[in-house]
Amino acid sequence: MTEKKMNVESFNLDHTKVKAPYVRLADIKEGQHGDRIHKYDLRICQPNKEHMDMPALHSLEHLMAEMSRNHTDKVVDISPMGCQTGFYIALINHDDYDDVINIIEQTLNDVLTATEVPACNELQCGWAASHSLEGAQKLAKDLLAKRSEWTEVFA
Ligand SMILES: [Zn+2]
């Protein structure tokens, strides 16, 4: 690992020391009026050992983006990591870690019962052919099975 501190928070995280799956508070940004953005690292796959397939990841992104907002109005963004091992979840003015865990759990339970991927068409998505509801549900199922491990980030 480099000694130099980098601009991006996750570039300073030792990815060989973490133990997926986990939910980790990655960053807090405060605006000049006191509003705070909390950014969470939802790691699903063990870095450099496994990764999500693109269609499954993409469908899980659509499903979580749509369904998480049924449980809270604090979600700013849910975005997949380019390494395909997890998602970043940004919330505004919500610093309750345990409740974030609950929101993720409720959202994944919604994913399990979904009968279609929302917005997987060429009008509403940039790669509508790359989706897998079945794949997303397998990811959600596996993640929920390890729910008790989510709060433990390091091995
Ligand atoms: Zn899409």
Describe the 3D structure:
The chain is of the alpha+beta class. It has one domain: 2-Layer Sandwich (Gyrase A, domain 2). 29% of the residues lie in helices and 19% in strands. The chain has three helices and four strands, in the order ββαββαα. A four-stranded antiparallel β-sheet has the order 1-2-4-3, covered by helices on one side. A hairpin with a 5-residue loop joins strand 3 (75-80) and strand 4 (86-92). Helix 2 packs across helix 3. The protein starts with 21 loop residues before the first strand and ends in a 10-residue tail after the last helix. The chain binds zinc ion (ZN). Zinc ion binds next to helix 1. Its cofactor is Fe cation. Its EC number is 4.4.1.21. Belongs to the LuxS family. It holds the Pfam family LuxS. GO terms for molecular function: iron ion binding; S-ribosylhomocysteine lyase activity.
